[in-house]
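Quick illustration, no need to memorize.
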Amino acid sequence: MKYLNIFSLAIIFVLASATTTLAQKTEDKAQVISSTKTLTTKVKGITCSSDLKTISANVEKLKGVKACKAGKTGPTTAFEVSYNPALITEKEIYSAIQGTPGCKSPNDRPYQIKQ
């Protein structure tokens, strides 16, 4: 009987600890999800719709980026990027845009952020 009481207390302790840990993880996850920002940036050097798709896909691969939507093709194109600032910075997003290879020549990096 004595061992049964000790075993029962141990089980209760383990379950209480697990519940507390799960509650903390859920709270942390909620904070990460709720802190989404939107960055709108203009990019020069885009010549075709393929450029838009390539840049958007490259930015969306980054951890912390939820979406990257491009505007119309033109001398300067606006991109709207939804991201989590706890996971990625604006500077990293800019680097991904400017580091995307051009569609005509993969060795070129023709895209520039317009400030």
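The helical segments are 2-34, 49-60, 90-98.
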